[in-house]
Amino acid sequence: MSGGKDPASGAPVSSAPVLEVRAAAYTVPTDLPEADGTFAWDSTTIVVVHAKAGGAEGVGYTYGPSALVSLVSDALAPVVVGSDAFAVPACAEAMARALRNIGQSGGGAYAASAVDCALWDLAARLAGLPLHRFLGAAREDVPVYGSGGFTTYTDGQLSDQLGGWVADQGIPRVKIKIGQDRGSAEQRDIERMLVARETIGPDAELFVDANGAYTPKQAARVAVAAHGAGFSWFEEPVSSEDLSGLRFVRESISADVAAGEYLTRLADVERMCSAGAVDCVQADVTRCGGITGWLRAATVAQAHAVGFSGHCAPAISAAPAAAAPALRHLEWFHDHVRLEAMLFDGVLDPAGGTITPDAGRPGNGLTFKDADAEQFRVA
Ligand SMILES: [Mg+2]
C-alpha cells in the first residue's frame, strides 16, 4: 500500500487490494401503508454491501429484493475481491462484464450499484477524505425536496407531512404522489394537489409524481384542471418507457417534466435526453451503476442542457450530489429517510432545504448500525 493514509498506521496509501465484499438484506415495515399511482407497499428492503481493504471498510446499498444478496456474493464479489480498491471504474467494468449473461440492467445494475457505492466509500476512507471531496466537490450544500404524499394518506396525514417539511424544517419544495389507482381517480388527484397547495402556502414549490399512471392526453388534461395548485414539476406523467408520450406532455404544459428513476444504463440516459422527453433527468445512484454511473449520467444531462436531479436514497446520494456541478436537487424521500436513520449513524439534517456532507467524517460519513439492523435481516 502506498497516497492517502493507512487507517491503522497513519502511513500514506494509494493502492490496497479489496479483501472482502459481502452483502445482506433487511426488510423494514413502513410507518403507514404507502402507494403511488402504480404500486403499493407496506415494507421496504435494503441490500447493504460492505467492502474491506487495508484496514478500512466501505458501505453501499441499494433498494431491491433480497435475491440481490446472492447476485453480489456469487457474481460480483469474485471479480472485485483482489482488485485495487482505488480502481473503482475498473471494478465497474469488471462487474459489467460479469453481468453480461445475467443482465446488466434491472437487478444486475442495482446490485452493481451497491458494490460501486461501497467501493467509492472504501477508497475515500483509505485516503482519509470525506467522499464528496475525494470525488471533487462542486458545492458544500445540496438542495433537497421533501417527497412522500402517498395516495394512501388521508388529507390530514398529507397536510401533517407537507407542513412538517415546509413550516417546521424550512424545506421550500415538496412532492406528492398522484395518478391514484392507475390514473382512474383524476378528481381525487386534483383535490389532493389543492390540499397540498393550501398546506404549503403560496411560496413553496409543489411537485407531483404520477409514476406513469396517466395516458399522455390525460396527463395534459389533469395539468390544466389542476392549474390552481400551481405545481411546477410533473414527474412520470406517463410511463418512462414512452419517450414520445413524455415529450408530448412536456410540450403541452408549463410545468417541467421529469423522469429517469428506472434508468440503469448510460445509453438509456442519452436516449431520454436525445428524445427531448424531459426537462430534468432523475437518476438513482443505487440503480444506475452507483456513483460511477450516476456522475456520468449527470454529465450526459448537462451536455444536453437538461436538468439533473437525484432520485431517493438521500444518505448515499449526498456525497455524489455535492460533486455533480449541474445538480438541481436531491429527493428527500420519506420512506428512505426514515429507514436510513434507523440503520445508519451519520445521516444528514435537511433543515432549511439543504443537506451538507460532513467534511469532518471520512468516506460517505455513514456507519451501519449492525445491532439495530439485525431484527430486520432477511438474507
Ligand atoms: Mg418518481
Q: What tags apply to this protein structure?
A:
globular, binds magnesium ion, TIM Barrel, Enolase-like, domain 1, alpha/beta, 40% helix, single chain, 8-stranded parallel barrel
Any overview of this molecule?
Its cofactor is Mg(2+). Residues 155-256 form the Mandelate racemase/muconate lactonizing enzyme C-terminal domain. Keywords: Magnesium, Metal-binding. The chain has helices at residues 68-80, 88-98, 106-127, 131-135, 155-168, 180-183, 186-200, 216-225, 243-252, 266-274, 290-303, 314-323, 334-343, 370-373; strands at 4-5, 12-13, 20-35, 40-53, 56-63, 142-147, 173-177, 205-209, 231-235, 256-259, 280-283, 307-310, 327-333, 344-345, 354-355, 367-368. The protein has 379 residues and is α/β, with parallel strands linked by helices. The chain folds into two domains: 20-129 and 371-376, 2-Layer Sandwich (Enolase-like, domain 1), CATH 3.30.390; 133-369, Alpha-Beta Barrel (TIM Barrel). Strands 6-7-8-9-10-11-12-13 form an eight-stranded parallel beta barrel, surrounded by seven helices. The chain has a three-stranded antiparallel β-sheet with strand order 3-4-5, with helices on both faces. It has a two-stranded antiparallel sheet with strand order 1-2. The two termini are 34 Å apart. The model has no long low-confidence stretch (mean pLDDT 96). Bound molecules: magnesium ion. Residues 209, 211, 235-236, 261 line the site of magnesium ion (MG).
